[in-house]
Amino acid sequence: MADTHKLEIFRGLIKFKSNTQKIWGVLIFLSIVTAIEVVLGIYKPEVLNGHFIGMKMLNWIFILLTIVKAYYITWDFMHMRDETASLRRMVVWTSVFLICYLIFILLQEGGYVGNVFTNSYFKHDF
């Protein structure tokens, strides 16, 4: 039972005959995504310098490609696809909650520090 891993990637679009082939397939996919990131980082096309929701499009592409790589590393190399749906949800929702909480805290503290530097006074005395 420990050796019965699913041998397909991309939701069954590509199927492999052995675990070794699957590892090489995922490695090649991750290498291609990394190569795209490196090429975009070196050349920085002018087309992607436009702003979208406060950041350059190039930054959004880097964030998206990083999330794709993290997903496939977790999904295939850490065998999350072989776990039960409840465990997968527990891992994902815990991470989403903690990331949202971290963003909230960073924005609150950043706003406070920004007001202190801008107005030169303290709003709250802790």
Question: How is this structure best described in words?
Answer:
By secondary structure, the protein is mostly helical. It is built from three helices and four strands, in the order E-E-H-E-E-H-H. It has helices spanning 19-43, 57-77, 85-119; strands at residues 8-9, 14-15, 51-52, 55-56. The strands form two sheets. Strands 1-2 form a two-stranded antiparallel sheet. It has a two-stranded antiparallel ribbon with strand order 3-4. Strand 3 (51-52) and strand 4 (55-56) form a beta hairpin. Helix 1 runs antiparallel to helix 2. The protein is flat and about 65 Å long. The N and C termini lie far apart (57 Å).
Quick tags:
126 residues; mainly alpha; two-stranded antiparallel sheet; two-stranded antiparallel ribbon; 4 strands; flat
Rounded to an integer in angstroms, the radius of gyration calculated over CA atoms is 21 Å
Structural class, please? mainly alpha
Tally of extended strands? 4
What is the H/E string? EEHEEHH
Number of helices: 3
Q: How would you state the average pLDDT, rounded? A: 82
Strand content: 5-15%
Taking strands numbered 1, 2, ... along the chain, how are they ordered across the largest sheet?
Answer: 1-2
Distance from first to last alpha carbon = 57 Å
> Which range best describes the helical content: under 10%, 10-25%, 25-40%, 40-55%, 55-70% or over 70%?
55-70%
Shape summary? flat
Largest sheet, strands/sense/barrel: 2 strands, antiparallel
Unreliable residue runs:
none
